[in-house]
Every structure is written in structure tokens, then in C-alpha cells.
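Workshop exercise sheet. Pairs work together: one partner reads the sequence aloud, the other fills in the structure field after running the prediction. Swap roles for the next sheet.
Pair: D.N. / O.F.
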Amino acid sequence: MTSPTESSSALRAQLRVRAEAWAERQRLPHFKSLGKTPTVLFETAADGSLHGNFHPLSWRAIQSDPSWAKRLEKRHSQTMTLPVERRKTARELDSSNSSDTLLMNCFCFPGAAERILAGLGLPPTTSAPEFGYHPRLELLSGGEDATEVDMRLGSLLVEAKLTERSFTTSPKTHVSRYRQLNDVFSIDSLPGDESHYFSYQLIRNVLAAASAGAHFLVLIDARRPDLRQEWEAVRAAIRDQSLAERCGLRTWQQVAAAAPEELRVFLDQKYGIVADP
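Structure field:
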């Protein structure tokens, strides 16, 4: 069985080859991170008209919406892996491995969100996507947690993943702060060890969906069966069947199948995401 690290590394390698070919073919400004297995990072064109990590139509839509454009400002979290001259200017969404970029490419593309929701069998909405949503989960102490969900779209909360190794791990003492934890989950069934819960991000997001009466969707690449297994372990621990039915998983390949043709071609060429038949 392929380990999560091996699965993540294999996908990173595929995306690196795709990104390099995409950059050369389109003559896009880009650079690489340092190290033996560098990541390709794209830059905004000098006139601001395009960014190699985004489909041109998605890019224009993002630039025209101040709340979407603000998401682009996230500083790169691993600056020491970058060339010195790029460390002040590089952004998280410049990376060809960024799941946030992939999410915005799909849901900011004009007319795509409605089609994708319908194709995935998810609740329709006329609301615009909100990226970096904070549901403000209640804590036993009476305060609120600063949890961030990748996207809210109407009554749907979305956690997007691509090459990330896991949904992260957190000490049980930290997770146990959530007021609804024992109501929402059979905690003895949650994946973990003596001192930590695994898949912490999924636990938080299911709690957010429970608190808001919302639907929750995990988006992963079909080339990452390890992430699917992580999700299935968390979903199995949900107490309420109606909540479990509102929480599900889809793949980027399924998103591509529901997407407009021009976006589908882009996902294939840049990411190797081939639409499920």
C-alpha cells in the first residue's frame, strides 16, 4: 500500500512536470523553489493581465471582485524554500501545488460554479463563493475558535486538498476544547493515537457544518486514495445520520466532468486532471 507521503510526493512530481511544460508552452513568468524536488511558482504578468497559475477567465473574474482578489495576498508560508530575491513577493497561491488556486480556478470561472454544483449533486445557490470563511466554532471556555474553511458557497462548506500530506494532526487536549465535539462525534471512533486526533481539519469542518446546519464537501484528487481513507474514518465517527448524509467527498476529476469545456481542457493540460467519464 502506498503511504501518504509517497502518494503526495508522486502527485507533486506529476504536477511539477505539468507546470514546467505549461509555463514553457505559454511563455509564462515563473521560477522554482530551492532543493532537490523544486516546486514551480508562477508570477503575475508585468501588466497584470494574467497569472500563469490561473485560467485567464478565472483570473479576470478574481481581479474584478475585491473579496476574491484579497485571497491572492496570502504570503507564502515556506519562504526559506524560495530564492532570496523572491521571498518578499511570493504568495501562497503562486505555487503550482496550491489547492486554493485550483479551487478558485474552478469556482471563479464564469458560470462554472452552478454547473459544478449540479454535476456533483450538491445544493444549488445564487450566492457567490466566499474564500477563507471563518465559522467561529464555540469552545467550552465560552470563546470561539478561529477555524478557517477554504470556501463557503451558499449552504455548502468546502475543504480542498491537492498535494498536502494529510488533514493534519492535533493534540486531543486542543480538539477537546470544542463545545459540540462529543455531541457530533463518537470520540472513541475518531482516528488518532493516545494523545492526538488525526484529520484535525476534517473534524473542525464537520463541526462547522453541524453548527450551521450546512453541507460539507471534501475535494481531493483521485490520485490520492490515502486522503479518501482519512475522510472515511472521520465520517464513520459522525453520530447523526442526517449530518453524515450532508457530508461527502468528491474528486477534482468529477469537478472537471461537470465544468465548462474550456475549463475542463485547462485542468487536463495544467494539472493532469482528466474528467471522469
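Discussion prompt: The chain has a mean pLDDT of 95. What would you look at next?
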